[in-house]
């Protein structure tokens, strides 16, 4: 029997920074598609959708 190995515990993606979320929202408001934004910023389309749906960018201290 072949034993299965556990996958590494590192996440498959990284969290977007405040500035990246702001970039996503700005590009979206400028009329770019989510696919274009994801390709341009080299992030997942799902991250783009989440950043757009969140509406708020945390204030910079």
Provide a descriptive summary of the structure in words.
The protein has 61 residues and is mostly helical. It has a domain at 18-53. It has helices spanning 18-29, 34-41, 45-53. The radius of gyration is 16 Å and the shape is elongated. The N and C termini lie far apart (56 Å). This is Transposase IS30-like HTH domain-containing protein.
List descriptors.
48% helix, 61 residues, mainly alpha, single chain
The tally of helices reads 3
Overall geometric form: elongated
> Please, what is the average pLDDT?
86
The biggest sheet amounts to: none
The low-confidence parts are none
Measured by DSSP, the beta-strand proportion falls in under 5%
| String of helices and strands | HHH
- The structural class is mainly alpha
Rg (C-alpha, Å): 16 Å
* N-C termini distance: 56 Å
Provide the helix percentage. Answer: 40-55%
Protein name: Transposase IS30-like HTH domain-containing protein
Organism: Clathrospora elynae
